[in-house]
């Protein structure tokens, strides 16, 4: 899993064992942050599944609760492609959260029936949460803003709120996602909620670049065959 590489549809690519472990497990842990990220609480149902040697693909429906939105409970459908190495560790994964834009709308509607007003209110609350996290954990060389006031101004006036597919772009929503991770490794994650986006929240490539990106070492998702290439290798 040391060379594990993953991609989540509306965010970014994640490379390496440590970073993937943090995001796969840490992102859904209980947090004091105000966040659009919910918590999987079960039960779950595997709707579709197919496997061939070291490749497995599934569609899974999981119940989530959203503590920052009145503890609303909603099902979330996730499509996954995974390859495994000989040690049965995940070597690659490609994940899509289905209908995520609809989910974000449902959450915002808990604030106000008018989505414009709901987004305006969410902007203030989410920015305050990110900035409080920054003040608490991003000290010294990890500091990204001179003050909490500067942080709030930047997040409410200088970057857009973001659409559901912009969780890996220069948006408030992207920084809200990464806020949860800051407490685990401030030196790595503080830049993600800062002005530069730290390589995670940036408008650095286009739609066409994202669609055409060649990312995986086993990009064609070809299963291992007897006497053939090792698990996860290119072919």
Task: Write up this protein.
There is one protein chain. By secondary structure, the chain is α+β, with helices and mostly antiparallel strands. It has a domain of 151 residues. Helix content is 32%, strand content 23%. The chain contains seven helices and six strands. Strands 2-1-6-5-4-3 form a six-stranded mixed sheet. Helix 3 packs antiparallel against helix 4 and helix 3 packs across helix 5. The chain is globular.
Q: What amount of the residues lies in strands?
A: 15-25%
Number of helices: 7
Order of helices and strands: EEHEEEEHHHHHH
Helix- and strand-based class? Answer: alpha+beta
Radius of gyration: 19 Å
Strand order of the largest sheet: 2-1-6-5-4-3
Q: Can you give the helix content as a percent range?
A: 25-40%
Shape: globular
Number of strands: 6
Largest sheet: 6 strands, mixed
The N- to C-terminal Cα distance equals: 19 Å
Low-confidence stretches: 226-235
Average pLDDT, rounded to a whole number, is: 90
Please render the helix and strand layout as text.
Elements: E1 5-8, E2 13-15, H1 17-26, E3 39-52, E4 55-66, E5 72-84, E6 90-97, H2 100-109, H3 115-137, H4 148-158, H5 172-179, H6 186-193, H7 207-212
Parallel strand pairs: 1-6
Antiparallel strand pairs: 1-2, 3-4, 4-5, 5-6
């Amino acid at each position: 899993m040391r060379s594990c590489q993953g991609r989540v549809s509306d965010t970014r690519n994640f490379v390496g064992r440590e970073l993937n472990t943090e995001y796969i497990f840490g992102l859904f842990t209980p947090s004091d942050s105000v966040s659009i990220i919910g918590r999987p609480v079960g039960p779950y149902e595997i709707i579709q599944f197919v496997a061939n040697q070291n490749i497995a693909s599934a569609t899974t429906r999981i119940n989530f609760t959203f503590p920052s939105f009145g503890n609303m409970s909603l099902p979330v459908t996730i499509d996954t492609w995974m390859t495994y190495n000989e040690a049965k560790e995940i070597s690659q994964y490609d994940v899509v959260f289905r209908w995520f834009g609809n989910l974000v709308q449902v959450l915002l509607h808990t604030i106000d029936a008018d989505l414009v007003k709901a987004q305006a209110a969410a902007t203030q609350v989410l920015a305050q949460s990110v900035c409080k996290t920054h003040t608490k954990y991003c000290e010294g060389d990890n500091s990204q803003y001179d003050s909490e006031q500067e942080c709030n101004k930047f997040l409410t006036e200088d970057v857009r709120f973001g659409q559901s597919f912009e969780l890996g772009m220069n948006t408030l929503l992207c920084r809200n996602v990464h806020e949860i991770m800051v407490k685990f490794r401030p030196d790595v994650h503080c830049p993600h909620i800062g002005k530069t986006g730290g390589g995670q929240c940036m408008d650095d490539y286009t739609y066409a670049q994202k669609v055409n990106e060649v990312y995986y070492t086993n990009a064609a998702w070809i299963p291992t065959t007897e006497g053939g290439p090792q698990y996860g290798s290119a072919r």
